[in-house]
Design goal:
It is built from six helices and nine strands, in the order βααββββββαβααβα. By secondary structure, it is an alpha+beta fold. It has a single domain, classed as Roll (C8orf32 fold). The protein has a six-stranded antiparallel β-sheet with strand order 7-6-5-2-8-9. The longest helix has 12 residues. The N terminus is likely disordered.
């Protein structure tokens, strides 16, 4: 996963209130999770397929057609916003919580608070200026369909663009490198792809039961 800087496309409010802590998502919990900077897709793969999160749980790939996703509050940022080509977080739809190991201010955010914090998208806004799309992939589908050989993090000469994780990649030779399909919002490889309104509806539906 690459990053670059960009002039903000939306103006940030002076402050975004931090959410109340959600047990057990504190710094001690974060320190127990597998985490390698710039490998968010693998970090979240381990979160979603492991035992650290309650079920149901899903991986959520944050995308747009431009491959330029500005995010505020990222630990890797020297200045906000940091622009990722894509980012991956965990989603707990029945709790309406987003879990992001790369967020510097809080690990778990209620969905609407996270949209304001990470993207400056107000719940009252009728338009999303970033044209974001969210690929939501449940645990079982993620296990069956996600595969990465980390080739996207090597240069043309084979050199590492960033230090690699110490663990082996979740790679299935029979499938090949499916990560590139996951980060294309127009590819139907797995899960559902929704806009901001669709994401809110997806998280609201389980809580209305």
């Amino acid at each position: 996963m690459g990053s670059f800087t960009l002039n903000p496309v939306v103006r940030a409010p002076a402050e975004v209130p931090l959410p109340a802590p959600h047990a057990p998502f504190d710094d001690a919990w974060r320190a127990e999770q597998r985490h390698q900077p710039f490998f968010c897709e693998e970090n979240v793969w381990h979160l979603v397929t492991g035992d650290a999160l309650p079920r149901p749980r899903a991986a959520m790939f944050i995308l747009n057609d431009e491959g330029a996703v500005p995010m505020w509050g990222q630990r890797a940022a020297a200045v906000d916003p940091l622009v990722w080509d894509y980012h991956v977080v965990a989603l707990l739809p029945e709790h309406g919580l987003v879990v992001d190991l790369d967020d510097r201010d809080a690990i778990a955010w209620p969905l609407d608070a996270w949209l304001v914090h990470a993207f400056r998208i107000d719940a009252r806004a009728a338009h999303d200026p970033l044209l974001l799309r969210f690929r939501v992939v449940d645990e079982g589908t993620l296990r069956r369909t996600f595969s990465t050989d980390r080739s996207h993090m090597r240069g043309q000469d084979g050199s590492l663009q960033r230090p690699f994780p110490s663990w082996p990649p979740p790679y299935d030779p029979a499938q090949g490198m499916t990560l590139s399909r996951f980060v294309n919002p127009r590819d139907a490889v797995a899960g559902v792809v929704v806009d901001v309104a669709g994401l809110r509806a997806l998280c609201a539906a389980p809580r209305r039961r």
